Amino acid sequence: MEGGNSPSLQLQQLPLATAAVSVQPHADSFSYKENLIGALLAIFGHLVSSIALNLQKYSHIRLAGSKDPRAYFRTKTWWSGFLLLVLGELGVFSSYAFAPLSLIVPLSAVSVVASAIIGIIFIKEKWKPKEFLRRYVLSFVGCGLAVVGTYLLVTFGPNSHEKMTAENITRHLVSWPFLLYMLVEIIVFCLLLYFYKERNANYIVIILLLVALLGSMTVVTVKAVAGMMLVSIQGTLQLDSPIFYIMLVCMIATAVYQATFLAQASQLYDSAQISSIGYILSTTAAISAGATFYLDFMGEDVLHICMFALGCLIAFLGVFLITRNRKKPVPFEPYISMDAMPGMQNMHDKGIAVQPDLKASFSYGALENNDSMPEIYTPATLPIVQEQHGSKGVSAPPYRVLEHSKKE
């Protein structure tokens, strides 16, 4: 009897074992395939976007250095870059529908690595091998660290997957961890905005923290929109739910304000600083938002979390070293041609050269000579009223010449 009942007992216990396995996040092998698909799409998108931006930059530089009267949007190079940029952004957008948010966001280091490699390949200066290695050793080390960090991120990234249905997104949206996270983020954002707008605290960390906080909400909504679109394509329509359009509006709004703060930061600081500090702050804020909203690290063991954090730190260091090696822009010495000013056509009648004063900052039209007098290094005074000298029919030039003696 026992031998005859044992097969039936095994058949009865089989569904229970299968149900127990389906609860475990790491037992489904297809989830790892989804992680790989999302990571490859993100890497492809960032790589293509970096190539596209460099193509558009090349188009602008080529037009600026030639006598071509065409606008930049009438060139094939610029449109090729634009189409590649759209393709790259679509790849990054679709990657959020497959892999967890905390895995996709740090992979933006690929764009920094690609930009560094493209800059080294297309550099126009000729270097000797030793000088070339000495000049770009930090870039090579940074690229290597970024690749190692990317490998660790893909290998030990979170493996939590759920269908982005309207019901699941609404449940995450009203959960108390995310509500608490949103409360803290809104308070911090308002404080930073107050110091930035009212106290004129134009520090790069403050501006990029504003960008990072907005960016964390952008990636949360991007994953929701991309995931609901994927579920709709698979057969379960989600586009008729109000939560889809709420997430879509939030995605567009946060992206627009994020671009506004980035534009303000680019006017005050160097692009290398913005790239390194912005990547670190934005990635940290986005991972925190993904862990709170989508519970990316729920069920992960300590080893995977520690290795994932190590991959993030290595990627941060690699991006910092890459951007650290960029040349600082040389400040522009202002120069105004006095011939172009109305009423000053007689300035060069006696061969007096007008050059920018290099010893005083931003003094336009200072006259250079060999007299070491302090008046020479101050901006020239150009009165409007003309004085009459000598005969009545002859008018003096519309400027006053200061006479200096060398008695002392």
From TrEMBL:
Annotated region (Disordered) at 388-408
Q: Which residue ranges traverse the bilayer?
A: 36-56, 77-97, 103-123, 135-154, 174-196, 203-231, 243-265, 277-296, 302-322
The record's annotation in InterPro entries points to: Mg_trans_NIPA (IPR008521)
Please give the GO cellular component terms listed in this UniProt entry: membrane
Q: How does it sit in the membrane?
A: Multi-pass membrane protein
Q: Which organism is it from?
A: Vidua macroura
According to the UniProt entry, its GO molecular function terms are: magnesium ion transmembrane transporter activity
**Similarity section:** Belongs to the NIPA family.
Q: Which UniProt keywords apply?
A: Membrane, Transmembrane, Transmembrane helix
Name the PANTHER family for this protein: NIPA-LIKE PROTEIN 3 (PTHR12570:SF14), PTHR12570
User: What protein name applies here?
Assistant: NPAL3 protein
Q: Where in the cell is it found?
A: Membrane
